[in-house]
Amino acid sequence: TNKPLCQSSEDTPLASRETVQKPRILTGDRPTGRLHLGHYVGSLQNRVKLQDQYECFFIIADLHTLTTRPEKTAIQEIAGNAREMVLDYLAAGVDPQISTVYLQSAVPEIYELNLLFEMLVTVPRLQRLPSLKDMARSANLQEMPFGLLGYPILQSGDILLPRAHLVPVGKDNEAHVELTREIARRFNHLYGEVFPIPEVLVGDVPTLVGTDGKAKMSKSLNNTIYLSDDATAVEKKVRGMFTDPNRVSADVPGTVEGNPVFIYHRIFNPDTAEVADLEERYRSGTVGDVEVKQRLAEALNRFLDPLRERRAAYEAEKGLVDKIILEGTLRVREEARQTLAEVRKATGLGGV
Ligand code: ATP
Ligand code: MG
Fold first, then answer.
1. ipTM of predicted assembly, 2 dp
2. 42 lines ligand 1 (CB under 6 A)
3. Distance CA 324, CA 185 (A)
4. Structural domains in the chain, sorted by start
């Protein structure tokens, strides 16, 4: 599984694509591991919902992983992680016949845009972004790497390369899309209209709490439920979930607000009558945590079952994921060539 991606071009296309112009979506994820419920509610759900209305570009943002982990061992993990991640996309309902999935590092024009955009942003503007400090901290970096400071500029390159109109992301990425809008406006002002000003679309749940009650579900905090977890793993994780810490026994009235078990119930349990009943009994001290969690595990497993089935079906098609990534990347490279031709024309820079 460490075989590099996008290194053969003998494959035949998966499908011929529509040529009708639709507005475009760009979003994606760093290939750092499997996707979890936070990724789903923050961004993935909107991609699936909108993929018929928009022409969708989903980027495997491998260069972004280098901002905190540039070492070769980390690079060697990218291909395997990317394959798992694309399976998660497919499991969630991304349709490879209509959406384009591609590998960031295989599109050098993104780095070209990155350099041009660097001229349009100040260092203090970047230093004010809390997300970058958080990332440096969670990667245990003493000082800010230049590339990490430039993370949102590279992301602007991702977004503007296919000239996207909409960017579905979680709350933590909202400020980066705002910066992208500034860059696009500034570029257009200096050189002429090349880029649409992209809108951000934050998911129904802007930030999903972790199973431990911490503000954000995140791999590095080890408080995740993965889309690919099996039923037993989900049950186990839910059993260990943080609830109302002041509740010492089932006959003590409990607090529902801010309680992650109930937050998840409201998001993932479509049986609203059951949720209302559990909340009522929790508040009055007539239901135990064990039952509330048992019902949540069942709801989550009902939610994940169709994803598991789709994942297994796609996984059984050997080589499919690599083919999706290769074909998507070739398509974006053509797109990239066109955008850079426009950029060179607008700026007056040389190059063919
Ligand atoms: P993790 O923190 O688990 O390693 P990540 O931060 O590396 O995940 P990114 O690639 O940065 O994941 O983010 C991918 C997308 O998922 C972004 O749009 C991000 O906002 C969204 N996202 C990640 N975690 C959450 C969450 N807990 N709630 C809502 N959205 C989330
Ligand atoms: Mg993140």
1. 0.95
2. yes
3. 33
4. 24-208+318-347 (3.40.50.620), 219-308 (1.10.240.10)
